[in-house]
């Protein structure tokens, strides 16, 4: 019998809640350590990925100049991926701070 992706995801979510529940119920200061870890990870991810995406845009600009053809679809994809790399980790930090304020 094959397990569906929905059942696997639901099982993982329930397991995560059950693991995190004692820390949440004990009024532990779980938010500060998680926030510090996510903040440092965010800075590293945004720095590295932003640099790589910026380098890709520069390289694509050079290739486009040599070929005398620039496809704006690819530039749009690079721009959106750079936006997601920057906004995504910041949204995680915002969500953790929001959870801290609610508890």
Give an account of the 3D structure.
The chain has 103 residues and is mainly alpha-helical. The protein has one domain. It is built from three helices and no strands. The longest helix is centred in the middle third of the chain and has 38 residues.
Structure summary:
The chain has 103 residues and is mostly helical.
Oligomer: single chain
Largest sheet: none
- Strand tally, please? 0
Distance from N terminus to C terminus (CA atoms, Å) equals 41 Å
Low-confidence segments, given as residue ranges, are none
Rounded to an integer, what's the Rg over CA atoms?
20 Å
Mean pLDDT: 76
How many helices does DSSP assign? 3
Report the principal-axis shape: elongated
What is the count of structural domains?
Answer: 1
- Proportion in β-strands: under 5%
Q: How much helix is in the residues?
A: over 70%
Q: What are the secondary-structure elements, in order, as H or E?
A: HHH
SSE class: mainly alpha
């Amino acid at each position: 019998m094959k397990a569906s992706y929905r059942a696997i995801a639901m099982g993982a979510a329930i397991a995560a809640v059950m693991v995190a529940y004692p820390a949440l119920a004990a009024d532990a200061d779980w938010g500060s350590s998680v926030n510090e870890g996510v903040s440092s990870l965010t800075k590293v991810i945004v720095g590295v990925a932003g640099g790589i995406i910026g380098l890709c845009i520069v390289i694509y600009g050079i290739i486009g100049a040599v070929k005398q053809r620039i496809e704006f679809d690819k530039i749009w994809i690079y721009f959106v991926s750079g936006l997601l790399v920057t906004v995504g980790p910041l949204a995680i930090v915002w969500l953790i701070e929001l959870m801290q304020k609610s508890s």
